[in-house]
Specification:
This protein has six helices and two strands. By secondary structure, the protein is mainly α. The protein has two domains: 146 residues; 62 residues, no CATH class. The protein has a two-stranded antiparallel ribbon. Strand 1 and strand 2 form a beta hairpin. Helix 1 packs antiparallel against helix 2 and helix 1 packs antiparallel against helix 6. It starts with a helix and ends with a helix.
């Protein structure tokens, strides 16, 4: 019994695309890690570039296993590939569900982490510099209470000429960075959830094709030895 060439080719090109995606994620992660300095404030609760690099490597390895398994018609590689996809599928679903239903828990956790950094001026110089960098990028001032978090308001809290009037008060950003961080997370969480569930759907196709090819190879081997 011959292996279905259509299923074999579809699985091969699926994994080739999967491998290319892993290369892109790895490349972007390395580029961001090299060009963008880490921030001790946001690194406590936002995914780091190291995590992005790790995800890229994992996807590359899985894509390579799938390509080789399909091309060589290796049941062992296909089985390992299927197990990896299943694990990622379960993790994506769990992460998506937790992110969707645990928003308040995440907000409280972030708030607890940030409160440990107040008063700001009592922190290490590196943390203060990161805080000022964050204020410039997010157009905010202070962590939890706004400008009152500072004894002496730094230049990074002062509005520039292009800043909208609704974010400034007396030439100073009026919103605390905590509010900006939560808004940023909400905006990107919806996109992340959409991507996660889309990837999960793609993984279902990958698992289906790999298992179909796995079974076909098994029947072919059984027929050849009969």
């Amino acid at each position: 019994m011959a292996v279905n060439k259509c299923v074999k080719n579809l699985l091969f090109f699926f994994n080739l695309l999967f491998w290319v995606c892993g290369c892109i994620i790895l490349g972007v992660g390395i580029y961001l890690k090299v060009t963008k300095g880490g921030n001790q404030i946001t690194d406590q609760y936002l995914p780091s570039f190291d995590l992005m690099i790790a995800i890229g490597v994992i996807i590359m390895v899985i894509g390579f296993l799938g390509c080789c398994g399909a091309y060589k018609e290796s049941r062992c590689m296909l089985l390992v590939f299927f197990v990896f996809l299943l694990l990622i599928f379960i993790l994506l679903l769990a992460a998506g569900i937790l992110a969707a239903v645990g928003e308040s828990t995440v907000k409280n956790w972030i708030k607890e982490k940030l409160e440990k950094l107040t008063p700001i001026e009592g922190q290490k110089l590196e943390v203060i510099n990161d805080m000022e960098k964050l204020q410039r990028e997010l157009k905010c001032c202070g962590l939890m209470m706004g400008p009152s978090d500072w004894t002496q308001i730094p230049d990074s809290c002062k509005c520039n000429a292009t800043a909208p009037a609704d974010v400034c008060s007396n030439g100073i950003y009026k919103d605390p960075c905590y509010d900006k961080i939560i808004s940023y997370m909400k905006e990107h969480m919806e996109v992340s959830l959409g991507i996660a569930f889309a990837v999960a759907a793609i993984l279902l196709f990958g698992m289906a094709f790999s298992m179909m090819l796995f079974c076909q190879i098994g029947r072919k081997n059984a027929a050849d030895t009969a």
